[in-house]
What we know:
Helix content is 41%, strand content 26%. It contains 14 helices and 15 strands. A five-stranded parallel sheet has the order 2-1-3-4-5, with helices on both faces. Helix 2 runs parallel beside helix 3.
Amino acid sequence: MTEKIRILIVEDEALVAEDLKEMLQGFGYEVPGIADTGEKAIALTGEHHPDLVLMDINLAGEMDGITAGGTIRSRWDIPIIYVTAFATPAIIDRAKKTTPSGYIIKPFNERQIQTAIEIALYNSMLEQKLKEHTDTIRTLLNATENPSLLLDAHATIMALNEAMAKRAEDTIEHLIGKPFFDLVSRQFISAPLTEAVRQAGLGKTIRVDEHFGNVWYDSSVIPVADSHGVVRSIAVYCTDISHRKTAEIALKTVNDQLVAEQNRLATVTAALDSMDDPVIITDAMGTITYVNAAFITRFGYNLPEVEGKHISTLAAPENLFGLDVGGFLHDQKTVQTGKFIARNKYGLNMPFLLKCSPIFEDTRVRKRVFVLRDELHNKQ
């Protein structure tokens, strides 16, 4: 069974209070109590937690109905309908500040009372749903550690989470209701995000990278439109991508360095290929890693045929110049020169004057460069 709506009556005239009680019970409501003072009204509200309070403004005792109604609203958020024979501007102004759900002028009839109660209960239900909706939004926003907020169509802050409040160096309570663009003037929001919010107001979903302080954010700005396509609110989600962005920047730096190195090597290769003398580059122990165009012409081998082989495999049996691994291991620093008799792919011996220069990196030999000058050409 559905529980009856419970309405507390606050009225210091006993006959009027009893008439109200009979009237409310006739409407199907339950009356948990009657209070004739403001103090008793607060006590009975705390005891019974009614669904609504019918509050006479002029009460016996020190506390009038408006003061009691304000206390009840602030403590329990229970809807109040004021009932009074007086409706001066001053009284109405005081009553408005307690956010009542209705205001009835005496004398009244049953229809007025019933209508006021139904409207007050309906509005209270809507307020409760709105509060639950707001609490849900706040819970969802705070479910993430990334800054998030919700704006209305005019970019006024409707809701935000602790992370966004921390970014703005403020509190949630103080920021709600403030213009979003106030954060821009205080330099808590970047120019890209500002422009994205403006575009979202026009119905465009925008995603931007923004750099704020030492943090990089991937921020999504999403317009929320009604069934007619009119933007009613704007959601802003800022995801911390500092680690990813740092990795991207580091990767770009490495790629830039690789491109620069490739360009440098391309220049060196072009220079080596323009030489008339065969050039061989090996690792520290003499294993071939590169040969130039002159080598390919004179020896008949292309790079894949000799790459990974030791330079000593290019020597003719008559060669006396030392090119063994032991010699390279023993002498790490000397620039070596001498006569080198090579044998090409076709079995032809070729005498060269050889110069071997070590290349150092971090004080260690990393490569060796062999330049072979044709002995006959050198004599000429």
